[in-house]
Amino acid sequence: SHLRDPASSLSVFGRVSPAKNVYLWNSIIRALSQNGLFPKALEFYGKLRESKVTPDKFTFPPVVKACAGLFDENMGNFVYKQILELGFESDLYIANALVDMYSRMGLLGRARQVFDEMPVRDLVSWNSLISGYSSHGYYEEALELYHELRNSWIVPDSFTVSSVLPAFGNLLVVKEGQGLHGFALKSGFDSVVVVNNG
User: Fold this and answer.
1) d(CA 26, CA 127)
2) pLDDT higher than threshold 80 for residue 13
3) What is the DSSP letter of 154?
4) How many domains does the chain have?
5) 166-183: per-residue pLDDT in tens?
6) N or C: which terminus of the chain has fewer CB atoms within 10 Å of its end residue's CB?
7) Could you tell me which residues the PPR repeats occupy (predicted)?
8) What is the Cα–Cα distance from 139 to 172, expressed in whole angstroms?
9) How many other CB atoms are found less than 10 A from the CB of residue 159?
């Protein structure tokens, strides 16, 4: 269920017996995480584990998002260990959440490791790591990854452009920056207003 109202989710959750129903647990954890109630989402994840319910692949993206939202590295590592134990590390949505979490925390070596081990990547995968590198000042790495992306079958979007612009500006890669600007205009991303005049 895509319940946007955590109070409704908690009400439904309280009226039924969720003990062994992972779907109900996932619904409440997702609703809490989507609404930024990260401590509560992790609390319910803990209750799920206490009730001996085995998490499934849908349990983890909102749990990882909650860890990222709280910058809780220890909990993030604990959850990652469980993901590995259950064999879910190759799931695209879980891996994307992990790359995003580690990137936000500035743990870019871990983020890159998860990224490199992904059997399949989508634009979210690339954007999370490029943004992580760029926002933490690793401009050369951001540019290198951007070039890898451009050589893949995946087409960058406005988020990619806004994430990599600081790298061009800070490294004074003027000619390439002009090429990126041309790509952005040609692709209809001319509304991207994040420009570094450095």
Assistant:
1) 26
2) no
3) P
4) 2
5) 887 777 654 555 555 566
6) C
7) 21-55, 91-121, 122-156
8) 11
9) 18
100 lies in the same domain as 159? no
Residue 129 near residue 115 (C-beta atoms within 8 A)? yes
Phi-psi region of 194 (alpha: psi -120 to 50; beta: other; left: phi over 0): beta
pLDDT at residue 198 tops 50: no
Residue 164 tokens, joined: 């990599």
Residues 100, 129: one domain? no
Q: Containing domain of residue 90, as a range?
A: 1-120
Structure tokens at 122: 């989508």
Same domain, 163 and 116: no
Half-sphere exposure of 168 (CA within 13 A, CB side): 20
Residue corresponding to tokens 């064999």 = 87
- Given 120, 145, 169, which residue is the final one in a domain? 120
Residue 48 has pLDDT above 80, yes or no: yes
The single-letter DSSP state of residue 14 is H
> Is 91 found in the same domain as 163?
no
Q: Other C-beta atoms within 10 Å of 39: how many? A: 12
Whole-structure pTM value? 0.81
